[in-house]
Design goal:
The complex is a heterodimer of chains A (137) and B (344). Chain A is mainly alpha-helical and 137 residues long. Chain A is 64% helix and 0% strand. Chain A is built from 4 helices and no strands. In chain A, helix 1 (17-48) runs antiparallel to helix 2 (54-73). Classes of the chains: A mainly alpha (137), B alpha/beta (344).
């Protein structure tokens, strides 16, 4: 679907608010598989570089920011919090005198996020209580 | 420079916008397709018409062809982010007010301040409830409805302030404001400018003998006939007094002005006016003045132009009414061959 259009967007079949939310939410859950793979790739990129490239940190921050926003919109609060920790760690990682970044906290945050993603992808558990009524939900 | 005809008091642009009573358009801007889906679904179910864009630049493209009252935008996006979009929208002249709601994960106080300073009207942190988002969009809907009704009201007030409510012709205020602009434009373009000063003959007798309702109908019919005789694109009519009118004729020289005066007199003579008191025949006395040469255009003032036309009108009255007399600006009656009814 071309989402940049001046035509009226009719993206959904009429239904109840909960039904529509659940449909899109399931699509988000399916997308988490891709997010998981992308996170793995970023972890590898971070590990490969002895002196991590600035662009890697930027990519990690952008990935985490996007995931954080969508996770909150679809009621995945823990995932959103995990992504926020990664985004903040990627932004805050300081550069030492040798041009190396302190990646300890970033690596830990990414590891925690990977666990979060694995949980969501693996279990397919329903959203947390209250998520249905947020915009999130 | 806008001409008097270019001053558009119609509601065409406003009518082109969706009727807020039945429809409210929301443009949703986010670089995440599923977030767009989610918000679209939510808003469509709440009765909004939704459009989507994946960047600020795409949003501007859509808004250039599709007016939306509300823009709900993310902050971080490639190409043009939400803050830049806010700044851009606030720097443009839009058809109507656009209510902007920033929806982002950034929740620091400084972020909120930056968002509002960039031009957003409201700020929602992702993770808020659907009810809160809908309530905030509802605020935007109320505000844009209020702004629209004020805009319509202002436009109507502007129109009424320069329009004669009875005949629909421009009023004296408009005449004295826009005739100088017509003269300036004529000077700039080196084009002639003519005015006809018209007075309906024995109009008091119409009122006295047939009543004011019939008199009003005669005035309205006169303006309608006069409008049929002038150029629709550039000419205009002002009611300068009770039964006195001024026809302003840009790009019109003396000969054409005299022809128009003859057409008007012929139209009135050939067709009586249906009124509540029956068919009434009227005649009109006309004074004509025109500025044609570069010297005339450069030296004459609006008042001199109007005074010359008025002198022509008085000369027509003194000569027995139902005729047109041409007067040179600052000079005497011009010795031009008489144009009788039906002559061109």
């Amino acid at each position: 679907v071309n989402l940049d259009t001046s035509r009226k967007v009719q993206l959904i079949e009429p239904g109840t608010a909960d039904e529509e939310f659940e449909k899109v939410r399931q699509r988000f859950r399916q997308r988490l598989l891709k997010e998981k793979a992308q996170l793995s790739a970023l972890v590898q990129a971070l590990g490969r570089a002895p002196i991590a490239l600035e662009s890697t940190f930027v990519d990690i921050g952008a990935f985490a920011h996007r995931l954080r926003g969508a996770a909150l919109v679809f009621g995945f609060q823990a995932l959103g919090d995990g992504a926020k920790a990664v985004e903040q760690a990627a932004t805050a990682a300081s550069i030492d005198v040798n041009g190396r970044r302190d990646m300890t906290s970033l690596a830990a945050a990414m590891q925690a996020l990977a666990v979060n993603l694995a949980d969501e992808v693996g279990t397919g558990a329903p959203c947390a209580a209250g998520a249905r009524s947020s915009i999130t939900s | 420079m806008p001409t008097a005809q270019m001053i558009d008091f119609s509601d065409s642009q406003i009518i082109a916008l969706p009727d807020p009573a039945s429809l409210c358009r929301v443009l949703i801007v986010d670089d995440d397709d599923l977030v767009l889906l989610r918000f679209s679904a939510l808003l469509q179910l709440a009765g909004y018409e939704t459009y989507t864009a994946t960047s600020g630049a795409a949003a501007l493209q859509i808004l250039s062809t599709t007016p939306c009252q509300i823009v709900l935008t993310d902050w971080h996006m490639q190409d043009m982010d939400g803050l830049a979009l806010c700044c851009n929208l606030r720097s443009r002249v839009n058809d109507g007010y656009i209510y902007i709601l920033l929806v982002t994960v950034r929740s620091a106080g400084s972020d909120i301040v930056a968002g509002l300073a960039a031009g957003a009207d409201d700020y929602v942190v992702k993770g808020a409830t659907a009810e809160e988002l809908l309530a905030r969009i509802g605020v935007g809907r109320r505000i844009t409805q209020l702004e629209r009704s004020l805009r319509i009201s202002n436009r109507e007030n502007r129109r009424m302030s320069v329009t004669d409510p009875l005949t629909g012709a421009r009023n004296r205020r408009f005449l004295m404001k826009y005739l100088p602009r017509e003269l300036e434009r004529a000077r700039d373009n080196g084009k002639s400018l003519a005015v006809l000063s018209c007075d309906i003959d024995h109009f008091k007798q119409v009122n006295d003998n047939h009543g004011h309702e019939a008199g009003d109908e005669v005035l309205k019919a006169f303006v309608k006939r006069a409008a049929e005789c002038i150029r629709k694109v550039s000419g205009w009519i002002a009611r300068s007094g009770g039964e006195e009118f001024v026809l302003v004729l840009p790009e019109t020289g003396q000969n054409e002005a005299r022809y128009i005066a003859a057409r008007l007199r012929q139209s009135l003579a050939a067709n009586t006016i249906p009124t509540s008191a029956g068919l009434l025949g009227i005649t009109v006395s006309i004074g004509i003045s025109a500025l044609e040469t570069e010297q005339e255009l450069g030296e004459a003032s609006v008042l001199e132009l109007l005074r010359a036309a008025d002198r022509g009108l008085y000369a027509s009255k003194r000569s027995g009414r139902d005729r047109a007399t041409t007067m040179a600006v600052g000079g005497a009656q011009l010795a031009l061959p008489a144009l009788r009814r039906g002559n061109s």
